[in-house]
Write a structure and sequence with these properties.
Layout (H helix, E strand, L loop, with lengths): L6 E9 L8 E10 L4 E5 L6 H9 L8 E9 L2 E2 L5 H7 L4 E4 L3 H4 L6 H10 L6 H14 L5 H5 L8 H13 L5 E5 L7 H18 L2 E6 L2 H7 L2 E6 L2 E7 H6 L4 H8 L18 E12 L8 E13 L4 E5 L6 H9 L6 E6 L2 E2 L9 H4 L2 E4 L3 H4 L6 H11 L4 H14 L16 H13 L5 E5 L7 H18 L2 E6 L2 H7 L2 E6 L2 E7 H6 L4 H9 L14
Parallel strand pairs: 3-8, 3-9, 6-7, 7-8, 13-18, 13-19, 16-17, 17-18
Antiparallel strand pairs: 1-2, 1-4, 4-5, 9-10, 11-12, 11-14, 14-15, 19-20
């Protein structure tokens, strides 16, 4: 006789506050999850995936958002019928959760060991020595180096991958029967993502826990899932084994999501002018932190003697892990930070190291699109004002600028009414479109795009990438496209530069670098990249 399921969700419906875009965030959702099994909930932002997870954990913001129908059976008990005290006893001990962004979940002023210790303390005090041993054991389990040192560190001293491992350690320190992972690898580079996915599979097999994994990336689904449930606008539109859903999707929405995955096939490089538009020679940048009586100062070389050229209309992809120096290179080109040495020539003219020292005519030449448009757009300014700010600062007439704003909003697929709205009134993909419009307002010749689609759903990502390509052709833009996703680099870039620890370790035409990599580090990146076309679902026999 088989063991009963760990989790059963039956006819779950969750209401939204009055005035929301729809009455129910989740409607009639059903699924079952057994011990040792991984179920992937897949869908775009707003599909209700995270609402389901919050309902299971008892974290919905009641009474505005609350379950109105159905049951959530965890180890035979209906979680919706339990009080807060009973739920608190289950959270951490029998149910754990890993959130998407560890820096918003970790307390910045508490050391890592103290934060994991809080999970232990919430379920009964332990002797100090035993408590410390459990903390170190949890950090060791998730593969963190020098766990004793990590336990004494603050979150800001860790990398993104290390912080996510800490979150997993905190969620698993009491060995729960159910782990919910809500987009835990979305913003991580490919090698860190591969390590986190491998870690979660290994821990699941070793501890026999049930794993509810929330994601929008079918490449990740192919790597980790036993079963898949696809959600759209609060409903499960398709479910089944990973083999069934990935290899023979029945619902048009599932097929559309799979079709939106970057294909990873390198595009043919075009023919470009011999004279480069951008000429970078010997670019260097080292970050230095001051020491103290108890701590030695640090030096981190982020750019080591970087040299390359870029032709007019060409797109150069810059790929590598977090900390490889990709974003530093983008900021050096735009003058947002000053270089230590080296030279940047644009159309034959040497550019000053910092943006503030460049004349107004040169500042407009290179513009940047950042990874997080919400952080780069002023929440107190309408998007129309944000787009108009640059041209107005250059002295262009206000009526001409107003017409330009309307034109740019139309080009990025937004209506003229968008100019009067604020950033928080748009979705993530729409905000990125606004950021692109703002960058184009000064008619740049070079666009630096720093991870512009890494946090977007696959379908929105596909739309934004198509927009970049369309604008590149229309405006004859050159682009430096910074990404950790090799599938995106293959689709978007004529040439690729691979960065590792501040160095360009390999550079060439995209098809050559990704198809016949020469450097060991490039081969590691390619092996770590999720590739739906290459991946077989867990348990799938080709």
């Amino acid at each position: 006789m088989s063991a009963p399921p760990v989790l059963q969700v039956q006819g779950l419906s969750i209401r939204l506050p009055a005035g929301a875009e729809r009455a129910l965030a989740v409607e009639g959702v059903d699924f079952t999850l057994s011990a040792g099994q991984t179920l992937c909930l897949v869908g775009e932002s707003g599909s209700g995936k995270s609402m389901v997870a919050s309902a299971v954990m008892g974290l919905l913001p009641k009474p505005q958002v609350a379950p109105v129908a159905g049951r959530i059976l965890f180890e035979g008990r209906d979680l919706l019928a339990l009080g807060e005290t009973e739920l608190r006893a289950l959270r951490g001990k029998r149910m754990g959760m890993v959130f998407q962004e560890p820096m918003t979940s970790l307390n910045p002023v508490l050391r890592i060991g103290e934060q994991i210790g809080e999970v232990l303390d919430a379920h009964g005090p332990l002797p100090a020595e035993q408590r410390r041993a459990r903390i170190i054991s949890a950090l060791t389990d998730v593969g963190l180096p020098e766990p004793e040192l990590i336990a004494q560190s603050f979150p800001f001293r860790l990398s993104g991958g290390q912080r996510q491992r800490v979150m997993i350690a905190a969620a698993l320190v009491l060995e729960p029967a159910l782990l919910i992972a809500d987009e835990p690898t979305t913003a991580l580079d490919v090698t860190t993502q591969a390590q986190i996915l491998a870690l979660m599979r290994e821990l699941q097999q070793r501890k026999g826990m049930a794993l509810l994994f929330i994601t929008h990336d079918f490449g990740v689904v192919a790597d980790i899932a036993d079963r898949v449930a696809v959600m759209r606008l609060g409903r499960v539109v398709e479910s089944g084994t990973a083999q069934e859903v990935l290899r023979a999707p029945r619902h048009p929405y599932t097929r559309a999501l799979i079709a939106a995955i970057p294909h990873g096939r390198a595009r043919a490089s075009g023919a470009f002018e011999a004279a480069p538009l951008l000429n970078v020679q010997g670019l260097c940048k080292t970050y230095r932190s001051a020491g103290s009586l108890l701590r030695r100062g640090r030096e981190v070389p982020a750019a080591r003697n970087l040299s390359f050229t870029l032709s007019r209309g060409e797109t150069l992809g810059v790929v590598g892990e977090s900390g490889s120096g990709k974003s530093t290179l983008g900021r050096l080109l735009t003058g947002l930070i000053a270089r230590d040495s080296g030279q940047v020539q644009f159309d034959g003219r040497a550019l000053a190291p910092e943006l503030r020292h460049r004349p107004a005519s040169e500042r407009a030449l290179i513009q940047m699109v950042f990874q997080d448009p919400y952080a780069s757009l002023n929440p107190r300014h309408t998007v129309g004002a944000a787009i108009a700010a640059g041209p107005l600062a250059q002295g262009q007439p206000r009526d001409k600028v107003s017409a330009l704003v309307a034109e740019l909003l139309a080009k990025v697929g937004l209506g003229p009414d968008a100019a009067q709205r604020y950033p928080h009134e748009f979705s993530g993909g729409q905000r990125q479109r606004v950021a692109i419009a703002r960058a184009l307002a000064l008619r740049p010749q070079l666009l630096v795009a720093d991870e512009p689609v890494s946090a977007l759903d696959v379908s929105v990502q596909a739309q934004v990438l198509e927009l970049f390509e369309q604008l590149r052709r229309e405006f004859q833009l050159s682009m430096v496209f910074i990404t950790h996703d090799l599938r995106v680099a293959a689709q978007m870039c004529d040439r690729v530069a691979v960065m590792h620890r501040g160095n360009i370790v390999e550079m060439g035409e995209t098809a050559t670098v990704l198809g016949q990599p020469q450097h060991d580090y490039t081969r590691e990146l390619i092996a770590a990249a999720p590739n739906f076309a290459r991946s077989q679902p867990k348990g799938f026999d080709a």
